[in-house]
Amino acid sequence: MKILIIDMDRKMAQYESDCLKTFRYDCDISESGQEGLKMAVDNDYCCIILETDLNSAIDGFLICSQIRKQKNIPIIFISDCGNESAKIRAFGVGADDYITKPFSISEMVARVKTHISRYKTLRSGSDAVKPEIIEIRGLKVDKGSRRVFSDGKEVIMTVKEYDLRLILLENPNIVFNKEVLFDRVW
């Protein structure tokens, strides 16, 4: 699986690449917006990590919107800018995630792995072979609508609560340690 990192800060991009390589991801790096866009369009990547400010005629937001016109792969912004308007703009042009510097490298890797996993699932259509409704001891989970019912009454929960419950229900009789649950849910 190959990841493209587009960042004008070569040291930061190399650090991200080295960390991802420990998890067996192959990474390409581009320090130029134009070159990065061409690489993203011309090659098959499972994820793109993109800096918002590239100090060129083309910034990360424009690159993201151009990629979205042709491909539907995970795009994760990494930026020094943590203000709300930059994040909203990133999601508006098609970003899947936004990480503000400084960040934990383990958090970045976890987010990349989660987006890639979800992308692979959607791409392969493997959700089609799993049951859409899971029922265990009075608990019913409708995966299609992401709704949970307990003894016929709907239970309202957060996205993370739902994801955690789904992992546990899909894997009965398996004990997970907290690191595995953090990796799968967060």
Tell me about this structure.
This protein is of the alpha/beta class and 186 residues long. Helix content is 44%, strand content 21%. A five-stranded parallel β-sheet has the order 2-1-3-4-5, with helices on both faces. A four-stranded antiparallel β-sheet has the order 6-7-8-9, covered by helices on one side. Strand 1 (2-6), helix 1 (10-21) and strand 2 form a beta-alpha-beta unit. Helix 2 packs parallel to helix 3 (60-70). The radius of gyration is 19 Å and the shape is elongated. The mean pLDDT is 86.
Topology diagram in text:
Elements: E1 2-6, H1 10-21, E2 26-30, H2 33-42, E3 47-51, H3 60-70, E4 75-79, H4 84-92, E5 97-100, H5 105-124, E6 133-136, E7 139-142, E8 147-150, E9 153-155, H6 159-170, H7 178-185
Parallel strand pairs: 1-2, 1-3, 3-4, 4-5
Antiparallel strand pairs: 6-7, 7-8, 8-9
Helix pairs in contact: 2-3
